[in-house]
Amino acid sequence: MAELLTGAALAARAAAALDVPLQRSLGARLIDPDAPAAGAWFVVDGLASNGRGALHAAALGTVLELAAYLALLPELSGSEDAVTHAIATQFVAAARDGDRVEVRGQVDRRTRRLAFLSVTATTSGRTVARAQLTKAILEPR
After folding, report:
1. Which of 30, 36, 105, 107 could be joined to 119 by an S-S link, Cβ 3.0–4.6 Å?
2. CA angle at residue 56 from 92 to 91, to 5 degrees?
3. One Pfam family, short name please (predicted)?
4. Which long-range contacts (CB under 8 A, 24 or more apart) does 17-22 make?
5. Across-strand partners of 87?
6. How far apart are CA 112 and CA 65, in angstroms?
7. What is the pLDDT of residues 93-124, one digit of tens each?
8. Whole-angstrom distance, CA of residue 74 vs CA of residue 72
């Protein structure tokens, strides 16, 4: 098996994921810059707000998917990448304008071509949403 992403290569891949214009517009940041797999956070404002004082579900869905990707990065080789194949999300509580939302993912299982992940979003220790994702592992042709 090829060498897994670590160090500067892992940091560069995480930075590229955060630099996607949609992530940037939402203000998504790493929870721990030294450990990208720890997840991402953002504040409910601007595009992340639904205009009625609460978190927009589409904004949250975007960062749920980002956190899953960040969690998977340490299990990818430098030549692999991953794309979302399926996602199921449960929104269980509202986050309000101004709230900091932390989104953390974990790899439940990784096969050669698929990864199964769970992601949880919280604000002030309260669960806002959960998601289960399947990501297809892409290899160079």
Report:
1. 105
2. 15
3. 4HBT
4. 17/66, 17/69, 17/70, 18/66, 22/62
5. 133
6. 20
7. 999 999 999 999 999 999 999 999 999 999 99
8. 6
Report d(CA 20, CA 118) in Å as an integer.
22
d(CA 53, CA 31): 24
Task: Give Cβ neighbours of residue 103 (< 8 Å, ≥ 6 apart).
Answer: 39, 40, 41, 42, 60, 63, 64, 66, 67, 119, 120, 121, 122
Nearest to 66 by CA among 46, 38, 33: 38
- pTM (two decimals): 0.96
Per-residue pLDDT of the chain (141 residues; tens, 9 = 90+): 589 999 999 999 999 999 999 999 999 999 999 999 999 999 999 999 999 999 999 999 999 999 999 999 999 999 999 999 999 999 999 999 999 999 999 999 999 999 999 999 999 999 999 999 999 999 877
Residue 108, classed as helix, strand or coil, is: strand
Q: Which two tokens stand for residue 32?
A: 């721990």
